[in-house]
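Title: Prediction job returns without error message
Component: structure pipeline
Severity: low
Priority: P3
Assignee: unassigned

Description:
Job completed but the reporter wants confirmation the result is attached to the right record. Sequence as submitted:
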Amino acid sequence: MHTGERLHSLLQSTRWGKDFSAQEAMVIGERMEERSYVDGERILNLGGEDRLLHLIVSGKVHIVKDYETNAGENPQESKSISLLGQGTVFGEISLVDHLPNSASAIAKGPVTILVMHGNDYDALLRENPALGVKLQNALLQVMARRLRLTTIELIRRL
């Protein structure tokens, strides 16, 4: 199956991707590359400067805050944020705000991901503004949902 066709099928299975037509998914898919990871392999590093949007095709990805410390200091605990599965995106914050990654992502078992580089995302916004806005809206919905969940969790801990 072509990447665009697989992406369309995958998008149709997600809450945020149902609004993309097959043609739109093909255009997005042409700007993505497939990557595979093994259990425990790092996909993103906290503080990394790579602007990459990731869409999980299969497997699970553990999102963690794992701060490094200077020699001689007590290391901070790694804090689990979430475990993401098929049809989920991550890396969207750095893609949009051009700042370093806010967390690390680690493969939990074998994982296949479709990745869009920041420069391809920027080019899509310039070359196909209507689709770019649609993609941005889908990413904003993901970020808004995650912010709501974070707020609920914060309130529970107070």
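Comment from assignee: result matches the submitted record. The longest strand covers residues 52-65.
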